[in-house]
Each structure stands twice: as C-alpha cells, then as structure tokens.
Amino acid sequence: MTARLRDVVEALEAAYPPGLAHDWDAVGLVCGDPDDKVSRVLFAVDPVVETVEETLTGESQLLVTHHPLLLRGVHGVGADTPKGTLLHRLIRGGAGLFTAHTNADSADPGVSDALAAAIGVRVDGPLQPAPAPPLDKIVTFVPVGPAISAVHAALSAAGAGQVGDYSHCSFATAGTGQFLPHPGANPAIGEVGKLERVAETRIEMVLPRARRRAVVEALRAAHPYEEPAFDVLEMAELPSACGLGRVGELEHPESFAAFTERVAAGLPATVWGVRGAGDPDREIRRVAVCGGAGDSAMDSAIAAGVDAYVTADLRHHPASEHVLAGTGPGTTTPALVDVAHWASEWPWCAQAADVVAGALGGSVEVRVSRIRTDPWTTAAHPSAPTAPTATTTAASPPHD
C-alpha cells in the first residue's frame, strides 16, 4: 500500500486531536500536498535548519515536530526571512511539515506520558485533567411500531448515540403516553377532542452538546407526531484522561538525590543538565511530570500530594518560594527537578513515530532525529565555587 501525506496526518490527528490545542496555538499541516506520496517521516522537537536538512538529506517526505514554526502571526514567508527560508527549503525539497504542540501535551497518551516512561514513572492520570467534551442526553417517546426504528436511525445519523467506539447506543423502556388533541391539531394518532392513550417506547441517547440543534431537528423531522415530546438534559461535567502533565509512581521509593540521577539518566544530555531543589535524602515515590515549561502547574503538583515534580523552565522566584514553603518536618510540598525544555519533550518523538508506524504499517519508515536542538550550546562553571561570606562587598560580588 502506498501511503499519502493525508494518511499520516489522519493518524497523527487521531492520536493528537487538534481540538485539544489551546486557542493561541498553531497545529496541523504547515506545508505539503495531502495527495503526495510518503514513504519516510522524520520526527523532531524543533523545526530548525538542522532538522530540515536532516529531513531532506535522509529523503524523508515529511518532518513532524512538536514546536510550531509559525506560532506567532506573520505577514509573509519570503525566502529572505529565517522561517520563510525553512519553508521554501522543505517545499523545494518535496517535503511537508506537520506540528502537534499543545494538543500533544494534553492527549492521552501525550508528551508527559513519554516523559514519565523515560524516567520510570508509572502513570495514574493527568496532573491537570481536561474536562471531557460536554454531553447532553435526549429522551423521547415514540409510538410502538416502525416509527421507533426510523426515529432511532435519524437521531444516530445526527450524532446521538456515539459512545467511544460504538454508535447507535440507546436505552429503551415501554410505557403509555397520553394526550388530548385540541381544535387546530392534526394528530397522527387519535381524534380532536378525545383523550388518547398510546403504547409508546421511551428512547434515551447521549449526544455531544455541539450536536444538540442537529439532533433535535432530526427528531422533529423523523417523529410521526405533530408535537413530539422530548427532554434534553445537560450531563454533569466529568474529567477525562486527557490534560496537562501526568501523576504516577516509581516502582520502588528512592532518595531525591538518586531520583535526580534517574531523571538525568533517562533523558538526553544537555548543557542545561538536570537540577534538583529539595532535601537530597527525602524519599521519593509519587511523582508529577510535565513536559515543557511547567511552572504554571506547580500548584497542581502540590495539590496532588506528590513527592517530586519534574518539568522544565522553572523560574528562580517561584522555585525559591516553593522550596521555602516546603521546609520543615512533615512537609507536603514536592521537591523540584528542573530539566532542559528540549530534553523533556524529546521522548515524545518516539511516541509519535510509533503512532504513524502502527497506523500505516510497513508502508512508511519512521525515524527520530537525534540532533540536539536545545538552544543552549555551552556552559561554564567556576572551578571552585564558594558561598559568599560576610566580608563580600557590593563592589566585588560573587559570581552568580
């Protein structure tokens, strides 16, 4: 079977639904013809010069990245601009570009699942659960006979009765309907001025709230009664398995110092390295992780009662205040592990590659870029760092 670009896009969007992306994000197919043939796909965190060249020299027809190339609005993509250069290089080389960003962050599984697996954390659920898509339930009453099947089919076609991988789902109970037609009515059953009792079936079906109008219109069109009776009920909001970050446990507890080493061993090396804030001897078992910049989810990590929180791009003041709040015996504030942004998201590349390989079998070869696109390339440390002393003056501050 020859795979097309649209086949790869469909597989990726099924795993990382665009609807999960934040409204400020830019996800999906950036360039490329959906009808183009695809035999090789490269996966990377960043769309940069190095990964674009790797795509083309490796004869891949698609580059899939986590970070968007065109996140902020642009007025043009001329080849004389940095981003335009990359797009023109891909197009001229016959390759497309696809991005899964915050939709991959919240998907189940997603970026944080891959991070958790890389450092040996067994995931229980999301750190910040996203609400499931809102649902309604429609309840209607249909006279016994052929109309039941007609109404059921119409509601199903309009979007009701979809539960996971099942369609046409409903529940039916028998009962008796009663009505009294008044002058001007045109009853399908009974006569004007005469109280009528009819054997009816009560049908209940769930539906996405966004399909409410379509389902009600389908009911009115298919129901034999001039004025069909029905209820539309809003279902309670429920958490889903999707959402930002993940919470889980280590197989065996270990010290915070050992856990920090575990994180460093599980992720690709960067100049940034892996930094820990907390008591090195503290026992760590329950862990929260968040791929990418995750200091906005720190309160959720505290509320989750975890022993350690692993994320990237932690800022000085929030981290300092967090550690201060966690001092003293019996603290429930987690220790912090700060890793490089790129390193925290790189494990996702293999996950996304598996999605495409699993969906398209042997028709598409998948490869994960091992080029380190973390922007930090060098680091320097004092040969013998010392803490500032009481004799340090403002004129000769210690190195920060």
TrEMBL record:
Homohexamer. Pfam families: DUF34_NIF3. Keywords: Metal-binding. It comes from Pseudonocardia sediminis. One of its GO terms (cellular component) is cytoplasm. It comes from the Bacteria. InterPro entries: DUF34/NIF3, DUF34/NIF3_bac, DUF34/NIF3_sf, N-reg_PII/ATP_PRibTrfase_C. Signal peptide: none annotated. This is GTP cyclohydrolase 1 type 2 homolog. Residues 376-400 are annotated as: Disordered. GO terms for molecular function: metal ion binding. A divalent metal cation binds at H66, H67, D105, H341, E345. Residues 377-400 have a biased composition (Low complexity). Belongs to the GTP cyclohydrolase I type 2/NIF3 family.
